[in-house]
Amino acid sequence: MKTTKYVFSLMVVAGFLMGYPVALSAGQLATGRLLQQAEAASRQAMALAEEHPEEADAQLEHARSLYESLVRQPDMASGQLYYNLGNIYARLEDYGRAILNYRRAQQYLPSNAQLQANLQFVRACRQDQFEEPTGNHVLQTLFFWHYDLAFHYRFWTAIVLHGMFWSAAIILIWKRPAWLRILTALLLLAAIAFGTSSAVSIYAAHHQCSAVILAKETYPRKGDGLSYDHAFDAPIHAGTEVTILRQRGDWYEIELPNHLTGWLPDGDLEAL
Predict the structure, then answer these.
(1) 62 and 34 in contact (C-beta within 8 Å)?
(2) Residue 123: pLDDT band with limits 50, 70, 90
(3) N or C: the chain end with fewer CB closer than 10 Å?
């Protein structure tokens, strides 16, 4: 475990500084002080990691508490804060909450290479490993703009392309050079691509919900209660990423990456 912490420390040594200017500009003085304290505790933990690991963990726990307070404040959540919080949980080897916060950070920073590298690292550390379907890789390659660009970029790009298309179409009423017809067709295709991508994201936000298992070990049930039998023999562990299908009281029906389904109490998982 010490080697794992050391390797991860090398990966994120610059990462703890990423959130400071972004979050500080949006908060009040008290919030700025909280952020400074969190950054200081993070740096102190990095300095103590090799020679005083117990003190380093105490500093990380202090930084974790401060960052959790920050992201729960109105209008304070940001990709950089979730990224730093994910780094802290990874150092504490709480891979469930590390994945949860990295994925929240992805909603703000979908194309951040360091974030993606850290997420892949903690996914490799979790106990349960599910092979991603080959079709997912193909879709991510073919429709790269949908997976690599944040929603607001795709949404506003669709609007701009839509306006450019209609401007070009109006000009075509009076002038019809070949290059303008080609340009108009390309603008239409691009507007459809980005518009469809935005619509898919809006639909997913309202009808699909992803979650991460936080319990160290849990057995999904066949129904929404402890009186039901286990849905399958093996338990699932912290860091497993699931899709929430529906909610019934304090229980959620979830689907695993291998498409098996079961029910879990709300304390065992947290939605993105």
Answers:
(1) no
(2) very high
(3) N
